Automatic annotation (TrEMBL):
Residues 344-379 form the EF-hand domain. GO terms for biological process: calcium ion import across plasma membrane. Keywords: Calcium, Calcium channel, Calcium transport, Glycoprotein, Ion channel, Ion transport, Membrane, Phosphoprotein, Transmembrane, Transmembrane helix, Transport, Voltage-gated channel. GO terms for molecular function: calcium ion binding; high voltage-gated calcium channel activity. SUPFAM superfamilies: EF-hand, Voltage-gated potassium channels. It is found in: Membrane. GO terms for cellular component: voltage-gated calcium channel complex. It comes from the Eukaryota. Residues 508-523 have a biased composition (Low complexity). PANTHER family: VOLTAGE-DEPENDENT CALCIUM CHANNEL TYPE A SUBUNIT ALPHA-1 (PTHR45628:SF7). This is EF-hand domain-containing protein.
Length: 546
């Protein structure tokens, strides 16, 4: 079997070599590392006795460590560490110390004192910057170099290593440094570390608006400088004609001294007019000249209005407008990014709901929700802004205590928690208070219905009492009517029995009377039943009304 010339690693193409490579490089955890340790003796036997087992072991473990570092879970840990508050605070403290050390070091160098403590501090800050860059690479990957801040940090690190760790040890003495003077310009590059102070204020919106406005207006400032130079040049040429060649230069000594001081040549005149652009004690320049020749006031007035007032104010307005437009553009971009983030979150939540809903019923039970994958749980924790357990999240979303949550309840609860910035527990309390209010409203409506029913029953009971009183009165009238009828019948019978027997004629005449009396006696008892039937009819009507 052939080996590589460098020693140790066998050449490709052999199945055993491929098996060796797979066993060494595809290890992912500690158990794999142990299996690799067990397979190393077998691999060394296959490769040959000349292969050093310790070198294979070290190489395999290094490969395992590299794979563990680049593992997605490990990268997530690095990312959380790099974005944590304590890490940002530590880097901010290092930046402040580095900025203070640069100023102290320059002061000590001017005074001729020792700068060893400052050099130690600079080396510490440089190591911290290197650690920050390594953390970014492990957390995000080499994609982080697309950021301009990371590029700037990398440039500062390279210049710091070149100056502090290479040039300073070689060119430390002043005599040697004087021989390599042009290279010592690189020492000034460490002053660029002061620009890292802006990283401390990148979270401050007001400060960042100023810095971003300045950076965005760099190109505009170049054009402003060009226009200002042209204006000053034109006014300088006009001043040479009106002031330098003025007739009073030969007649008035004071006028000539003022011209020789401020307007003796074109460069000197341009430097003088720069004072007018900045409004730097301009009366000292034009007072004597205007006093000697009043017509020169028109020139200076036009100069002040054009360059000092209109030009600079117009430039400031343009810069302000550009900055505000840039702020609006960034706000729109931030809103778009936020909406895209929410859209992706909704999509992820929908996919998560589909994965959890195994039976496809459209509802999630507590058992299904608690079987959530850790990655889905991390997504919910980031969305809700807290480390809640699946059972706590389920209880917060299950407001009606039905033991199941629908996709609508899931989306409404999480969306409201994200939009309001509150935790899910707060939204749950609000929903519970709202449900209690609804239930209290329902209970009040039920109580009002019960009160109405009670009033109706009282009215019916009062009506029933009135009907009972009327019934009792009718019964009493019936009893009195029967008693009066019986009494009348008894009186008639007694009268008939007590009458003497008449004569024959009288008998014939009395016969009709007896018949009429009998007829009346038979007809009188018949009236009572009629009245009883009437009373029974009234009672039936009363019972029907009841």
């Amino acid at each position: 079997m052939s080996r590589d010339v460098s020693g140790g690693r066998p050449s490709q193409g052999n199945p055993r070599d491929a098996h060796w490579k797979k066993s060494v490089t595809n290890s992912k955890d500690v158990g794999t590392k142990r299996r690799g340790d067990k397979m190393l003796p077998k691999a060394s036997e296959v490769i040959g006795a000349a292969l050093d087992q310790r070198s294979i072991l070290a190489r395999a473990r290094a490969n395992i460590r590299a794979r563990q570092i680049l593992d997605p879970e490990s990268r997530e840990i690095w990312k959380q560490a790099g974005l944590s508050a304590w890490f940002e605070g530590f880097i901010g403290m290092v930046i402040v110390l580095n900025a203070a050390g640069i100023g102290i070091g320059l002061t000590l160098q001017v005074e001729g004192k020792s700068t060893v403590p400052v050099q130690v501090l600079e080396n510490f800050c440089l190591v911290a910057y290197i650690a920050e860059l390594i953390c970014r690479v492990f957390a995000i990957g080499f994609v982080c170099f697309r950021d301009h801040w990371v590029k700037f940090d990398s440039f500062l690190i390279v210049m710091g290593v070149l100056v502090d760790w290479i040039l300073d040890p070689i060119l430390g003495a002043e005599g040697v440094a004087s021989q390599f003077g042009p290279l010592m310009i690189l020492r000034m590059a460490r002053l660029l570390r002061l620009a890292k102070i802006m990283q401390l204020f990148k979270h401050c919106r007001e400060f960042w608006i100023l810095v971003r406005g300045f950076l965005n207006c760099v190109n505009m400032m170049l054009y402003v400088f060009l226009v200002l130079f042209v204006c000053i040049y034109c006014f300088s040429c006009l001043a040479m004609e009106l002031i330098t060649k003025h007739r009073l230069n030969d007649e008035d000594e004071e006028f000539r001294e003022q011209v020789q001081k401020y307007f003796r040549s074109l460069p000197n005149t341009m430097m003088t007019l720069v004072r007018f652009a900045c409004l730097d004690n301009t009366s000292e320049v034009y007072y004597i000249l205007v006093e000697k020749d009043a017509w020169l006031s028109m020139y200076f007035l036009f100069m002040i209005l054009t360059v000092s007032l209109v030009f600079f104010h117009l430039t400031g307005a343009v810069i302000f407008s550009t900055t505000m437009d840039k702020n609006l553009e960034e706000d729109d971009t931030a809103k778009k990014v936020e909406m895209d983030k929410w859209a992706n979150l909704v999509k992820d939540l929908k996919e998560m709901f589909s994965r959890l809903d195994g039976d496809g019923s459209g509802f999630l039970s507590r058992a299904e929700f608690e079987q959530m994958h850790p990655s889905d749980m991390q997504m919910l924790a980031r969305a809700l802004g807290g480390g809640l357990s699946p059972s706590a999240i389920f209880d917060s979303l299950d407001l009606d205590r039905s033991g199941e949550i629908s996709i609508t309840e899931l989306f409404d609860g999480i969306w409201e928690a994200i939009a309001s910035g509150d935790r899910l527990g707060t939204k749950r309390m609000e929903k519970q208070v709202e449900m209690m209010h609804v239930r209290m409203s329902e209970m009040s409506a039920i109580q009002e219905g019960i009160l109405m029913t009670h009033k109706n029953l009282e009215q019916q009971m009062s009506t029933q009492k009135i009907l009972e009183q009327q019934m009792s009165q009718l019964v009493e009238e019936m009893r009195l009517a029967r008693l009066s009828n019986n009494k009348n019948n008894n009186d008639d019978n007694n009268k008939v029995a007590a009458a003497p027997p008449p004569a024959k004629l009288g008998q014939s005449a009395a016969a009709p009377k007896s018949k009429s009396a009998a007829k009346r006696s038979t007809s009188q008892p018949g009236r009572a039943p009629e009245s009883v039937s009437e009373v029974s009819g009234v009672g039936q009507n009363v019972s029907e009304r009841l």
